[in-house]
Amino acid sequence: MEEPLFFPSEGFRLFGVLHLPEGQVRERALLFCHPFAEEHKQGYRVFVELARRLASAGFPCLRFDYRGTGDSSGPFTDFSLAGAVRDIQAAAAYLVERSGSGRLGLIGLRLGASLAWRAVENGLEADRLVLWQPVLDGKLFYRLNIRRSLVRQMLTSGKAAGVREGQDTATVDLDGYVASRELCEELQRLDLSGATLPAARLLVMQFARSSEPVAELRPLVGSLREGDCFVSFPIEPFWNRLGYVDCSPAIEATAAWFDD
Question: CATH homologous superfamily of domain 2-136+192-259?
Fold first, then answer.
């Protein structure tokens, strides 16, 4: 059963979809933390497929939009990393209340994985944390979004007239999304490469041709503890692709990890 709904977070109405199992319900509920901007749009279908797969296995799941994004209230300029972390906390409280679950797991993709990490760091009680290709280097992520925006402008108008890095403006075009200067500064300060691992048990998933961790993930993978897990799949980075990418191996591996 899938139920579209709204719930509150600091005066914002956040839109979500609650996936409830039809049969026996597991003790752990699972909260999905979607990626940023264009990556959210490209990865949307995969998260729907993952939520449906996990709900069929008995896990209550909630997918939702942060403030200022998707169908939640507010313009995109209301979106910030700190606000999104608080939205995750509000969504977790709502999911636990609706499902009656005694345990919580978080699943995040790209920047959503980083935000899930931050939420657990800030005291959210979760015993499982799934990080699909997390963003650990915020400066690199910010630069990539600036470059995507400039490439898009070149393709559509023949010239890159958008805001470049370092300009003193109130907003910045991040690949078609008008972001606040506060958000841009938050992104550039984000650095999880040397951060203390959250208390939750971790599944780190990489999408790359190599079975070895890519440079950005190497410090994280090297610090994993007993009980944590790293898996690499030779799957294209679907969050950057327009066409369909079959992510069923990653979906099944995630479901199996929660069964453990």
Answer: Alpha/Beta hydrolase fold, catalytic domain (3.40.50.1820)
